[in-house]
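A.,

Following up on our hallway conversation. Structure tokens first:
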């Protein structure tokens, strides 16, 4: 009997790992803000991040259905649709074309897009055809009735490194400061969660980020083991974080890259509802 159990152990372990890497977790979060305009009470945002040219879960159709059922006002895509290790443009295009039908979509780059300049140009052209808004260090105002919020998107931090290695951090901060609107509720899309203190210093109200992959392997009561750019035992891996008046939402991501296995860390779709504090 013990031998049979031992023989089955690898199969059970492999099945568990596959399930954790393919069974989609939906995280619904409700956020309350005093500064949010009244007309944006109950404003719904779906966040898609770090797909890495992977099929989402067991079925893309199930993933899209969950977003449709949420009925978001907008969909934010926070980088790494592409993957510099195993890129498949057809998968990226298929997912984006389905998202574009559901709600207005807004995209910012991740580090993997910047590693693939030719493919990234193709991606930008395809997004333009799909009416997906590419926020290239830019902002736009979303208006409901007579009230507006400011939606800001910055390129991945490596963009600034590539542009000016000596002054990249200062240029990153300067760009964020110029795009911030003191008279509006400000939502920022930025691939990197580890820059949270910068976002909070500028007073962004709500930030959506990815990149951390949930820490890849998660230990109960400890958290994630490793994250790109944060190293071992990273601080910002998943969930919501608050610093002063700023709230950061970090998605665990929807795919894997160079390290293909997640443990105790399912792929994640974030569905956020904004509420006005009355």
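Then the amino acids I'd put at each of the 278 positions:
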């Amino acid at each position: 009997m013990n031998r049979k159990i031992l023989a089955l152990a690898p199969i059970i372990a492999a099945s568990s790992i596959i399930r954790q890497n393919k069974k989609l977790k939906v995280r619904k979060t409700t956020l309350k803000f005093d500064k949010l305009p009244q007309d944006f009470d109950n404003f719904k945002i779906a966040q898609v991040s770090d797909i890495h040219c992977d099929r989402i879960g067991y079925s893309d159709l199930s993933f899209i259905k969950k977003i449709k059922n949420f009925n978001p006002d907008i969909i934010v895509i926070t980088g790494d649709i592409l993957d510099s290790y195993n890129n498949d443009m057809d998968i990226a295009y298929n997912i984006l074309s389905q998202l574009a039908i559901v709600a207005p979509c807004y995209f910012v780059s991740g580090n993997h897009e910047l590693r693939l300049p030719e493919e990234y140009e193709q991606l930008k052209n395809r997004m333009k055809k799909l009416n997906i808004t590419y926020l290239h260090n830019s902002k736009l105002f979303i208006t409901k009735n007579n009230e507006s919020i400011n939606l800001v998107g910055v390129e991945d931090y490596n963009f600034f490194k590539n542009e000016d290695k000596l002054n990249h951090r200062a240029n990153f901060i300067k760009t964020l400061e110029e795009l911030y609107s003191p008279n509006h509720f400000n939502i920022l899309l930025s691939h990197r969660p580890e820059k949270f203190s910068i976002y909070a210093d500028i007073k962004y109200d709500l930030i959506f980020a990815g990149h951390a992959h949930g820490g890849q392997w998660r230990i109960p009561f400890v958290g994630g083991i490793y994250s790109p750019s944060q190293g071992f035992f990273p601080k910002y891996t998943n969930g919501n974080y608050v610093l002063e008046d700023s709230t950061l939402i970090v998605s665990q991501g929807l795919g894997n890259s160079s390290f293909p296995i997640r443990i105790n860390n399912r792929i994640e779709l974030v569905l956020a509802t904004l509420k006005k504090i009355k």
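Residues 4-15 have pLDDT under 50 and may be disordered. Curious whether your intuition agrees with the design.

B.
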